[in-house]
Design brief:
The protein is α/β, with parallel strands linked by helices and about 280 residues long. It has 2 domains: about 70 residues, 434 Repressor (Amino-terminal Domain) (Orthogonal Bundle); about 140 residues, Endonuclease Chain A (Endonuclease, Chain A). The chain is built from 12 helices and 6 strands. A 6-stranded mixed beta sheet has the order 3-2-1-4-5-6, with helices on both faces. Helix 5 packs antiparallel against helix 8 and helix 7 runs antiparallel to helix 8. The longest helix has 17 residues. The radius of gyration is 21 Å and the shape is elongated.
Length: about 280
């Protein structure tokens, strides 16, 4: 039987198909076996595995049932949503997969609250701005917000990760979605700071040139204690595991925490912003 080899990195659809095939073969199943379990024809399974047919939401959900991946941090439905969003930066989808399994997550952001800390309304307002500018469709905006909520849900576990967030002061002073949306977002940050597995600090404007980062930096510590870094340009995300690139970012993050306000001072600043104080 001819077997079409695919490069999983060639496209999101190829990665989905390759995962279906590897999951099936790991169980010793033939395409006919999986077809029967999912309620599809073996021809349909073959077409998805080889990238000739784009998976659907129904297909991905049935794959989760067949392979027992439903309710995990890395479902086929989630992977399908990554294909559908399309407008996500290259490298981001892979990062999110690791984030959902990390033991420790360190976040830094400028101008906007990081995704794991966003309320749905705040996230929707951001995506609405993208729709107004014509960079994504309204459907993509909805799917991206849904994807974010799923991403956040993956961090709610029996043993949740330690989440450390240092936010530039601009994150809490830049109003997004109007006063009510922003007030709820700031209250959400205060609630985040009260959790036993979190740390929240503000990097004030007065840090000036001492602030080591000028754009998003995320650092993940995995369960094997290895560390990976994720950074973004305007058009692309970069996931790096090489220690020569990651360690300087870890060092700079520690310097950032040293210079930033304490959590108590940060909470006080957020409360001042909520009250409209300068």
């Amino acid at each position: 039987m001819n077997r079409k080899e695919l490069n999983p990195d060639s496209s999101p659809e190829a990665a989905f198909g390759a995962r279906i095939r590897s999951s099936r073969e790991a169980r010793g199943w033939k395409q006919e076996d999986l077809a029967e379990a999912m309620g599809y024809s073996s021809t349909h399974i073959s077409a998805v595995e080889t990238g000739r047919k784009v998976p659907t939401l129904r297909f991905s959900r049935r794959a989760d049932v067949a392979f027992g991946t439903g309710g995990t941090a890395d479902t086929f439905e989630r992977q399908w949503r990554e294909i559908r969003t399309g407008s996500l930066l290259e490298g981001f989808s892979e990062y999110v997969g690791h984030e959902g399994r990390a033991a420790e997550i360190r976040l830094f952001e400028v101008g906007v609250i990081p995704g794991p800390l966003q309320t749905r309304e705040y996230a929707a307002a951001i995506e609405a701005g993208h729709v107004q500018r014509g960079s994504i469709t309204a459907e993509q905006a909805t799917e991206r917000v849904d994807f974010l909520i799923e991403r956040q849900a993956a961090l709610v576990r029996t043993h949740p990760p330690m989440v450390i967030a240092v936010l530039d002061e601009s994150c809490i002073r830049r109003e997004i979605g109007g006063p009510e949306v922003m007030d709820r977002q700031l209250r959400h940050l205060l609630e985040f700071a009260e959790q036993p597995n979190t740390s929240l600090q503000i990097a004030p404007f007065t840090m000036g040139e001492r602030r080591p980062f000028n754009r998003l930096v995320h650092l993940l510590t995995l369960t094997d204690r290895s560390v990976m870094a994720y950074v973004e340009s305007q058009t692309q995300g970069y996931l790096d595991r090489e220690s020569t690139a990651v360690l300087p970012l870890v060092r700079a993050y520690h310097q950032l925490q040293t210079e930033a306000l304490s959590q108590a001072e940060s909470v006080a600043m957020i409360e001042q912003v909520r009250k409209g104080a300068p």
